[in-house]
Please model this.
Amino acid sequence: MLMEFSACYGWELDIPEYYVVYGYDDKGYYFSGPGCGSGRGPKPWKDLGDTDIGVLETYIIKPGQAVDDIRTVKEAFGFALEHSKSPAKWIYPRYKAGLVGFDNWIEALEAGRADGFGMAYNSAVWTECRNFAVEFLEEANERIDGRCRSFFDEAKEHYRVVAQNLKRVSELFPFPPKGNEIKDAIRCKQATECLRKARSAEEWGLKTLEKLAPQL
Model:
């Protein structure tokens, strides 16, 4: 008998991605997500976390206290700005976020050290994130009745440029990889140019958020 419970999600129930766990029985978990939108399972109990990187990561979501839109948006910007500076409490050792993250990505690609799978995966993930950044800015601007509209519009255009360039990188290095694209010098050069444009737009986007957050 399939049992249902509060909303849960976890890492790598199938491919290295996050999945929604929508039920379980005496055999394991049932889930949906990338590559199995209509659902899949059971994922045997003993196999959870049995991956190449040995990570077990699951979460449960419960109702919380709602706060007003302005506070929500301001705290979101605060977190984004903090995260961009690679604080140890959020970023693993030897990893970087924000502009330095772009620098590492570009340097690895130019030096021929980039991994094909990682290149495709990161391109797909960060394209999705920056597309959502544009959508977040659009919705946030509407929810707070156009307060600081010029700053919101400016930030939205910067992140749109980031998203467009990362999308081009993801087209050059599709996920999952279809071949050995990482060995294609022309493809790597084009991706590097796009990453530089994305980094520049990201820098301006962060500067705009720094001006915007105190105004809320």
Residues 142 and 149 are 9 Å apart (CA to CA). The chain has two domains: 8-60, 69-215. The longest helix spans residues 116-143. Residues 69-215 form one domain.
